[in-house]
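Protein modeling request. Please complete all fields; requests missing the sequence field cannot be processed.
Requester role: graduate student
Desired output: 3D structure, token encoding
Chains: 1
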Amino acid sequence: MKAIVIALCTVLIFCSAVWSHGDEQHVLGTVTKIDANAITVSTSPGVEKIVSILPSTKFLKGGSPAALKDLKIGDRVAVHAKPKAGGLEATEVKIGSGKSPSK
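Delivered output (103 residues):
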């Protein structure tokens, strides 16, 4: 029984490593600023992250392909980004279907 538990734990640890995004960081929050080259995301009160947008950045909204033009201030996002030259470069931006709750 002990060997089965150890084997199961090993498989779970391996699977989580495979499903992770390698060296990418996740930025979760609300969009506060948008321009052609970057978006600013408020991750918690007083904390904002600027994420560069590249031509290769993929956008998804509700599981369907989207574009930067579909992103609006106030949208909730989940950004997968790679650290580059002291900043973050987005590889994927998932746009939430609803707006952030009112304060």
